[in-house]
Amino acid sequence: MLSVVNSLPHQLVKRNDWATCYTSAGTFPLLDVSTTNNTIVEGQQTDFTVSGSSGLIQSDIEASDRLYIIFTDNDNEENQPTFSTPVCGEDALPPCPIKAGTPFTVSISVVVPQFPEAFDVDAIIGKNPPDRTLGCAYTVEWPDSPKFK
């Protein structure tokens, strides 16, 4: 699904540091992402909270747009467990559309999948990423400490 995003070589970043997503056509606005206890641990429930500050998203967020959390196995990019939730229009969420430039926050709770080696995590606001990506952030996780804590 996101074979274009992060397709260019990128430097490994410190665990749970979120960076700008890019394609060969350019970059996407950087989303603010936080996780439960600032960690991503395989096999454990993790809450992702994603927000966009004022002026960040340059298009309206529509009822069909979603927050996607996508895990990509660095050894097998076809292995991309994906979770999503609406950004607006449902209980406890702002009404749709969210006008361009309006701050927003949305959360999703997922069980982090297990991978044999390193994996990327993308947080994307949009529809059918990367076809309509309004904002994005990614981080790289790798097993350099006990189960990524």
Keywords:
Phosphatidylglycerol/phosphatidylinositol transfer protein; Immunoglobulin-like; single chain; 9 strands; globular; mainly beta; disordered C terminus
Topology:
Blueprint: E1 22-23, E2 26-27, E3 32-35, E4 45-52, E5 66-73, E6 82-86, E7 104-111, E8 119-127, E9 132-141
Antiparallel strand pairs: 1-2, 3-4, 4-7, 5-6, 5-8, 8-9
What do you see in this structure?
The chain is 0% helix and 38% strand. It is an all-beta fold and 149 residues long. It has one domain (23-148): Sandwich (Immunoglobulin-like), CATH 2.60.40.770. The strands form three sheets. The protein has a four-stranded antiparallel sheet, with no helix packed on it. Strand 1 (22-23) and strand 2 (26-27) form a beta hairpin. The protein is globular, with a radius of gyration of 15 Å. Residues 1-14 and 144-149 have low confidence and may be disordered. It comes from Gigaspora rosea. This is Phosphatidylglycerol/phosphatidylinositol transfer protein.
